[in-house]
């Protein structure tokens, strides 16, 4: 962001902000920042949390991240509220752009996981966000625990997962909120064209018919910058699903002899891939 004179607002982070721990963090999308970058408007929910829950006073410093990787130290001004009752929003003064509380992973990891029932997929979204995953993709498979019967149900689930990802990013110190896609069917996922830009590796994790992760990595000239990892449902993949993925160019990977719950496999896959690609070291 730049001020009215075209000068960047990003300055050296002072020791005050480096040592501010834990940060009191709030979210505001890029559109909530003024065009000159000097102020930002918090939503009603965020304003309520600032004023009524944390009871932050005028003159205090808080931190606002935009969900796209940027974070700012902001000052709470006196009397900068609008609206009434629960519909009050708050405008903050932007002091400077700062380094996010937590660094982003060098790996652009898209985690595709078969839909799970109950709160299991909620847990996948939360922990994948904490681990630094950049995209979460719910997948409808033959043995998936959940069936999406109408578009409205899919939209409702997606909005819930997106809220969970935002809260997890706020809690874990990330300034980037991972994308959470609408549920996609297995065939559409495996046949989708590769993303433009960096070379992308596509890995399907299964109980059988695959090779070890280390063995697969050893054949590549360098760790990939972008990976899509596909994790199956509790009941496992059907043989024809594994075969179709293989024919579509996916590498099939196994994680050893132990049987893992689907949500556990998702966490293990994310952590292993990031470690092998230079994160979590």
Describe the structure.
α3 crosses α4. This protein is an alpha/beta fold. It is built from eight helices and 14 strands. Helices cover 30% and strands 23% of the residues. It has two domains: 84 residues, Ribosomal Protein L25, Chain P (Beta Barrel), CATH 2.40.240; 169 residues, 3-Layer(aba) Sandwich (Alpha/beta knot). Strands 7, 8, 9, 10, 11, 12, 13 and 14 form an eight-stranded parallel sheet that branches. It is elongated.
Give the total of domains: 2
Q: The biggest beta sheet, please?
A: 8 strands, parallel
So, the CATH homologous superfamily of the largest domain? SPOUT methyltransferase, trefoil knot domain
How many strand segments?
14
Q: TL;DR?
A:
With 281 residues, the chain is α/β, with parallel strands linked by helices. Helices cover 30% and strands 23% of the residues.
Which key features would you list for this structure?
281 residues, alpha/beta, Ribosomal Protein L25, Chain P, Alpha/beta knot, 2 domains, disordered N terminus
SSE map:
Blueprint: H1 15-18, E1 25-27, E2 39-42, H2 44-53, E3 61-65, E4 71-75, E5 81-82, E6 89-98, E7 108-114, H3 120-131, E8 135-140, H4 151-172, E9 179-180, E10 184-185, H5 186-191, E11 200-205, E12 211-212, H6 213-218, E13 226-231, H7 239-247, E14 251-254, H8 262-276
Parallel strand pairs: 1-3, 7-8, 7-13, 8-9, 8-10, 11-13, 11-14, 12-14
Antiparallel strand pairs: 2-6, 3-4, 4-6, 5-6
Helix pairs in contact: 3-4, 3-8
């Amino acid at each position: 962001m730049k001020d009215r004179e075209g000068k960047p607002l990003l300055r050296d982070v002072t020791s005050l902000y480096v040592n501010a721990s834990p940060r009191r963090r709030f979210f505001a999308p890029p559109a909530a920042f003024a065009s000159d970058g000097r102020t930002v408007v918090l939503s009603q929910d965020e304003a309520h949390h600032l004023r009524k829950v944390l009871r932050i006073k005028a003159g205090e410093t808080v931190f606002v991240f935009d969900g796209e990787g940027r974070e700012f130290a902001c000052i709470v001004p006196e009397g900068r509220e609008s609206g009434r009752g629960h519909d009050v929003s708050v405008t903050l003064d932007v002091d400077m752009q700062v380094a996010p509380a937590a660094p982003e992973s060098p790996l652009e990891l898209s985690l595709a996981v078969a839909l799970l029932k109950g709160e299991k997929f909620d847990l996948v979204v939360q922990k994948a966000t904490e681990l630094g995953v950049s995209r979460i993709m719910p997948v409808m498979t033959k043995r998936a625990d959940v069936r999406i019967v109408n578009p409205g149900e899919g939209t409702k689930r997606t909005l819930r997962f997106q809220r969970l990802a935002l809260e997890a990013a706020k809690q874990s110190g990330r300034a980037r909120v991972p994308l959470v896609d609408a549920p996609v069917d297995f065939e559409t996922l495996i046949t989708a064209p590769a993303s433009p830009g960096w070379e992308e590796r596509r890995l399907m994790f299964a109980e059988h018919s695959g090779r070890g992760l280390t063995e697969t990595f050893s054949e590549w000239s360098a760790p990939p910058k972008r990976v899509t990892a596909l994790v199956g449902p509790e009941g496992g993949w059907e043989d024809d699903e594994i075969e179709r993925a293989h024919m579509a160019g996916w590498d099939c990977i196994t994680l050893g002899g132990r049987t893992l719950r689907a949500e556990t496999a998702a966490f293990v896959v994310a952590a292993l891939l990031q470690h092998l690609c230079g994160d979590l070291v």
